[in-house]
Each structure stands twice: as C-alpha cells, then as structure tokens.
Amino acid sequence: MTNNTTRLDHVVLWVTDPVAAAVFYDTAVGLEPINVAEFVQGTVSFPSARVNEETILDLAPKTLAERMRMLPGSVDSAGHPVNHVCLSLPADAFDALRSRLEDQDVPVSDIDHGLSGARGNATRSFYFRDPDGNVFEARHYDEQPRP
C-alpha cells in the first residue's frame, strides 16, 4: 500500500443506532467492527466497519449532524443517504454475503449480470439495504488474465 495514490478512504453513513449498525455490518455483511466499545464508553463519536485495509464505513449517529459544520448545509445531510455504496467481493465472499443476508431475512434483489463499474463489467451483482435504509450493491468481477 502506498500513501501517494488516490483511493477511497471512508464513507460516512447516517444511522439511528451505531451499535446495532455495527452488529449488522459484522454479522450480516461480514465487515470487522471498529471502536464499538470506545463509542459505548463515549471516547469516540462513532464506530466504524472495516471494508479492507484501506477503507472503512463510519457509522455516524444522526444526532451527530448538529456538529457537522464543515460546509454550509452540512447539518442537513443527516437522513439523506447516498444512492448506494458498492462493495466488490471475490466470488466466494459474494456468495457467502448473499447467504448470510438471506439467513438473517434481509431482503436482497435479484442477481444482475454485466453491470458496469470501476473494474469493467461485473460478473454478478445484487442490492440490499441496511437497517437504516442505506442501499448497498454487492458485486464480483471475473479475474482477467494479466497480459
């Protein structure tokens, strides 16, 4: 990993209950929770869920919105999720995620094929919502042989 390339660091999701959200992302999505105990103890403002070694999802309580003053109107962003966040997974992790979500009665969309993304056309993808209504897409790409 280098620190001199452009890449996604984190996405902040507005959630009603950060601890419950961390549990969902751990048990249903399979992402490692970060700083949950510290949030409960009041030493950090929110917990997170680790997507990979470079990217996390911050699980910010909607009550934190009143402190969002970095830009005019930032306070109004609470409760306005982005359209969706896409997680790219290896085929086995894609299948495991779909199974975990179905086991926990989380509604999932049908599987799409060939949707375009950062790495070209995905082999398979599907959508689901977290308990706060944030929409996620899960997808995987076939590995292309290197020239």
UniProtKB/TrEMBL annotation:
Gene3D superfamilies: 2,3-Dihydroxybiphenyl 1,2-Dioxygenase, domain 1
Pfam families, sorted: Glyoxalase
InterPro entries named among the record's database cross-references: Glyas_Bleomycin-R_OHBP_Dase, Glyas_Fos-R_dOase_dom, GlyoxalaseI/FosfomycinResist, VOC_core
Superkingdom per UniProt: Bacteria
Segments forming a coiled coil: none
VOC domain boundaries: 7-141
Xref: PROSITE patterns: VOC
Protein name according to UniProt: VOC family protein
Biological source species: Streptomyces cinerochromogenes
Taxon lineage: Bacteria, Bacillati, Actinomycetota, Actinomycetes, Kitasatosporales
